[in-house]
Amino acid sequence: MPERAPSPPEGTPLAALEVALAKADRVRGRHHVPGAHGAGRTRGDVRIEAKADTSSDRATGARPATVCLISLYLSESLAVRQLCASLKAHGHRCSLIFFKEFRWEVFRPVTAREEELLLALLGELKPDLVGISLTSSLVADLAYDLADKVRDRTTAKVIVGGAHPSVSPEEALEHADFVCRGEGEDAIIEVADAIANGRAFDQIANIWTRHNGEVVHNDVRPLEANLDLLPFVAFGDPDSYRIEDDRLDRLDPATQIPLYHTTASRMACPFNCTFCGGPWLRRVLYAGKGQPRRYRSVGHILGEIKQARERHPGIQQVQFWDEVFAVRAPEGWLDEFCERFPREIGLPFGIWSHPGLLIEPTIEKLKRAGLKKVVMGVESGSQHVRREVLNRKETDAAILRSADILKRHGVEVGYDFIVDIPWLTEENLRGTFTLIMQLPEPFEVGIHSLSFLPGTAITERALAEGKISKEQVSRANQPLPERFESHLWKSGLSIRDRSSAFWHSMIYLASVPLVPKPLLWRAYRWSALFKLFPGPVMIAAEAARMKGETGEVKLWEALDAVHPRLAGFLARHPRLGAVANRVVRKVGRWGYRLVER
After folding, report:
1. Who is most buried in 19, 203, 454, 492, counting CB within 10 A?
2. CA angle at residue 409 from 408 to 413, to 5 degrees?
3. Apex CA 321: angle with CA 316 and CA 322, to 5°?
4. With left for phi above 0 and alpha for psi between -120 and 50, is residue 593 left, alpha or beta?
5. CB–CB of 167/454 below 8 Å?
6. pLDDT tens column, 492-534
7. How far is CA 406 from the centre of its chain?
8. Helices marked H in 198-297 — which ranges?
9. How far is Cα 450 from Cα 464, in angstroms, rounded to an integer?
């Protein structure tokens, strides 16, 4: 029987593993994971306390399989948490490894030490199967690199799953023993069963693999209609690890924050946005396999949240991940939710919604139930771009009407926009600026870059029209940090692309409550000039970003970020720098006086 995972105290760094890795820096080939102080077994120079085995053997009498599931840059991943819970419910052993966190504004790439920590941990856990979740195509090459190293350095078989492998299974199978397409709860259980019982893998639905040198393409199974049959997602599981900042800790990072993530439905969004992978899942992968739109019962959702609060009393808010909350829910579902949630849970919650579906009676019900915040994807401020490029039918009037409803009912709101759509670029950017300027305050704005995901309609169109190359699909031609940073407002911000630099900066300034709107409207009227000389607007945007982060206006740091050569020159010539400082301040005061007239 495989060795169980070690049990150091929850929430503490695995210090002995750090010591062992330091030795491994000098003598390669031996990796150790420590345990808590006290009795335990010894391997090499590190004392390891074995964890009590609380899982029961399967009804068949076969030994359980040992599985490790890895989530990349997504500690709140519901996918790996659901898979873990399903595996444990069927008697298998499962550990969750949350490898790196995604942090807005500051991307932190994987370090060599973090990679060694992961491989050393796997060396001690000795899994039969390692699963890697690719919920984002942006991390596909990282996932494949880790999969290759896991196969080289351990005896475990590797399975990859998620949106990207579902669309590109041939590519994924080059780096894995199995590819899971679509929903994987039943599939991964059958793979684990086959490992435990020594059976073949070539007849498992949803799984692509190799058998006798040939690729086996198994079709997906019908969708599970009753989501209540699934166990609650793993949360606060003792077999959870986090690797971040060159540290390995035994804890579930989701228990370190006051926000609990969950979902009420699967594939419920009725829209067919060209940039989204949802339509492909519904229309292609699961065509004829059952109703894609499925809802959990209200009681099942509330039961999960109650259990999570017992494990983590510090939960203060719930976030529902549904693309459009309660859209086309079963009759009576929303009324039951709005009646029971405040009575049984009593926490504020946030949702995602759609401006074409947001109506006042629904918001009134949800507000009484505890609704705190709504995030809506507007994507483009240009109605023409939304219709012709993104397949979004809502009008500007509908968006502003939805914003007004949320404002009247005191609901916090965030809006998502895509700034680099490669069709009608000027119209998109100009329209986005003007629409943001009309939104009632306060609000938050998420400014994103368009990701060309495999299988989406916009990717196929862009390839056909020569807007992008195959290497640009999923940004495979960019280093990983640039792919993540491309989601920030500074995406592609370069003085060399003067028009885009101007509009990106104006959009950012419109989205933060630091610059008076009259001043922005005046800059908008002078857009022909600023598109030729966008430097002042770019510096203002960078200074506004820094003020939002630090509370201070740092003009020199902003200048250095936008014009490093100019900043360096002025630093070497302090007298000129002093003159430039006075000029900048005078121009700023003049601008404000101009606005006040």
Report:
1. 454
2. 90
3. 135
4. alpha
5. yes
6. 555 558 888 899 899 999 998 878 888 899 889 999 998 988 8
7. 25
8. 278-280
9. 17
Across the chain, which distance is largest between two alpha carbons, in Å? 84
Q: Which residues of 383-399 are buried (b: 16+ CB within 10 A; e: fewer)?
A: bebbeebbbbebebebb
Does 521 fall in a domain? yes
Distances (CA, A) of 147 to 119, 130, 306, 497: 11, 9, 36, 38
DSSP string, 432-493: HHHHHHHSPSS-EEEEEPPP--TT-HHHHHHHHTTSS-GGGGGGTTS-HHHHHHTTSTTTT-
CA distance 296 to 559: 52
CA distance 9 to 48: 12
CA distance 561 to 495: 11
Pick 452 or 238 by higher pLDDT. Answer: 238
Q: Per the structure block, which two tokens stand in for 81?
A: 């948490």
Any idea what DSSP says for residue 283?
Answer: I
Q: What is the mean pLDDT of residues 219-230?
A: 98
Q: Does residue 450 sit in helix, strand or coil?
A: coil
Nearest-angstrom CA–CA distance, 15 and 538? 45
Q: Which of 248, 273, 297 is at the close of a domain?
A: 248
Residue 224 lies in a domain: yes
Give the count of beta carbons closer than 10 Å to the beta carbon of residue 63: 17
pTM summary value = 0.85
Number of domains within the chain: 2
Which of 201, 226, 248 corresponds to the end of one domain? 248
Of 72-81, 450-459, 551-560, which gets the smallest average pLDDT?
A: 551-560
Which H helix or E strand runs over 240? Answer: strand 240-244
CB 161 within 8 A of CB 179: yes
Residue 576 lies in a domain: yes
Which residue range forms the structural domain that includes residue 528? 515-597
pLDDT score of 12: 42
Question: Which among 273, 304, 272 has a CA at the least distance from the CA of 78?
Answer: 304
What would the pLDDT profile of 551-587 be if each residue is shown by its tens digit?
777 776 777 777 677 777 777 878 877 777 777 666 6
Q: Is 447 helix (H, G, I), strand (E, B) or coil?
A: strand
Q: Does residue 282 fall inside a structural domain? A: no
Residue 11 CB neighbour total at 10 angstroms: 12
**161 three-state secondary structure:** strand
The C-alpha torsion from 547 through 508 and 447 to 564, rounded to 10°, is -70
Using an 8 Å Cβ cutoff, are 440 and 412 in contact? no
CA distance 475 to 136: 11
- The 3-state DSSP composition of the chain as helix, strand, coil percent (nearest 5) reads 45, 15, 40
Q: How far apart are CA 562 and CA 538, in angstroms?
A: 7
Q: Can you tell me the distance from the alpha carbon of 102 to that of 480, in angstroms, rounded to the nearest whole number? A: 12
Per DSSP (E only), the strands in 302-433 are 317-320, 349-353, 371-379, 412-418
CATH number for position 125 = 3.40.50.2300
Q: How far apart are CA 294 and CA 411, in angstroms?
A: 27
Cα–chain center distance at 189: 25
SS3 375: strand
Beta bridge partners of 256: none
Burial code (b: 16+ CB inside 10 Å, e: under 16) for 415-426 equals bebbbbbebbee
